[in-house]
Fold:
Amino acid sequence: MSNTERLLLSGNEAVARAALDCGVSLGTAYPGTPSTEILENFSLLGGKAQWAPNEKVALEVGIGAAFAGARVLVTMKHVGLNVAADPLFTVAYTGVSGALVIVSADDPGMASSQNEQDNRHYGRAAGVVILEPSDSQQAYDLMREGLEISHRWQMPVILRMTTRICHSKTIVTPGEKNLPTEAPNFERDVTGRVMIPAYARPAHRKLRAKLAEIEKWNESCALNEVFEQDKTLGIICSGISYMHVREAAPEASILKLTMTYPLPLEKIRKFVDSVQRCMVIEEGDPYLAQCIRAAGMEVEDKDPMYRFGELNVTRVKRILAGDNTPEAAPPKGKPPQLCIGCPHRNVFETLSKHGCIVAGDIGCYTLGVLPPFEAMDSCVCMGASIGVGLGLRHVLPDEQAKKVVSVIGDSTFVHSGITGMVEMMYNQPKTGHVLMILDNSTTAMTGLQEHPGTGRTLDHQPTHQLDYEKLANAIGIERVFVVDPFKNMEDLDKILVESLASEQPTLIVTRRPCLLVSKKIKQYQEKANQTCQS
Amino acid sequence: MKNNKVTNVVFAGLGGQGVLKASDIMSEAAFATGSDVKKSEIHGMSQRGGSVSSDVRFGEEVSSPMVPSGEADYLVVLSSDQVENNRAMLKPNGVLITPDSIDVSQLPNKRSINVALLGMLSSHLEIDEKTWMDAIRGNLSEKLHEINEQAFALGRQTRQG
Structure:
């Protein structure tokens, strides 16, 4: 009996639906565009989903659950996998008992990211299977297939999506339910899971043996499809590139690669030999082209100019025509800005007024770099504001050092600012330091997600709330101030000036909920109060 | 595949205007007719008032989810100042739909301009009115149904010349 249900889903919704249909016991993540909606949808569908403080913790929680035999989904944006890379490289050795699919949502073209790294490299670097969907149906199918592969070979699998797959809606026909038959249960496996060198050495060999087996399986499995057409041109592609290629070159023969690590090199060789001219069309880094050439095959590749940004039908046509003339600049639209009435505006106005050197961070408030504020001097990665600010203070001449302020949002602080705050007390610059947590009571940038500092879980239920001021006290910071930057801008100004002059380590929390979330917070609180009373 | 006619619609405007809502309604209406449909958008920064656009493509079979530049049959722009930076999307003889041809004073709520423009678009497309209404209702909360049905009707009557 086949399922005839027909749905119009984004890639993110499709992954959530597949996780539900396959009985995934736990979904865990830190929000990050373009991955955020996967867990939100999994939760709405009734799955158990939770935000972790950061991607490393999310993956570690996922590993624990998968050690216990559960089917697990961990999602993150591409740069999140850098944060989670430490557990990733070693869970490749330990493997898992249930199943573990890690979604890496890459952002070629940087619609909402600080870089456009290509996470297919993680497959090769860590020794983890990479699956690449090219639309929502395949996102659905590969989430299921990823769980199967993970369980069969007892190892993690990366489902590598991109912004256009995550956020495009295409038609999906879901499959039958495929629920686990065994409940989680602890079985001891000391040599398999305790990675001391004596056990890790054989574990590495075991990983390579599994990958060799998977590579062989990948040669003949149905995941990588050949579309035989005109033999004068053959195109090798994967992910969204496949869709652009079909439209740009409807007559060409195509090898669509779905498992892009480990690669089915013999299948690729057969395809390359079957066509007169073979081109690799891929978005981002020349990952496939380099792997294929390293295996001794002759293939053509895009010009390096197409490594930057997303591909589209027009660019694929240009690549096929060998057209490397400069591309027309995309028309300039209106840049985003801090909302009118955003509490961050007053903070940046104050920082700008005092000529501060601002080590910034990742979030809405990064927009403080744009006019009219222009009050940000660096933005590297989540949590970097504190370390970078301290580094500046350590080496700058005093008159400059005294002006350095680190600015970080509440969610970003919990994600990876806490260790920076420890460093601020452990290796104090002689001019002290000023750290500002811009607390708008939500993860605004990614669409108003909860985090440990909001005191609510992913589905907005009350839970323990992290107290930044007490945390700062426990770390040893004595100068701790809380100010509403919207109501009391003058106080903020005074506190900042005094703190810079004090040359003592200082935390200033500017606290005022984001305009977009304040109404929702009231609703969540009312609902929680009603539940308490009934 | 050669005779496969795909209809390309590009929606554009500013964050918060309902660009993505309009493209959601359009894609669901096309979906309900049994067509293949793909809808693409870039969001993330979109709530911060910047330029936003979304592509909807439908027909027998759609490949890329993105409308190639210069191939939009219809360009629906919710904010007049966003026309020029999106004009290149439109094919020669393509149809530009903007709020300029709508009598905004007749809208029960100005925020329904996105649905009014869908009404204008609908007069060019072979999708029946009931399908549009179902898509509108399915995408908006019940209290917004009536004003948006009125906005749609207003747009549908004001077919652009």
Observations:
- Residues 6-157 of chain B form a domain with the Pyruvate-ferredoxin Oxidoreductase; domain 3 fold (CATH 3.40.920.10).
- The longest strand of chain B covers residues 6-14.
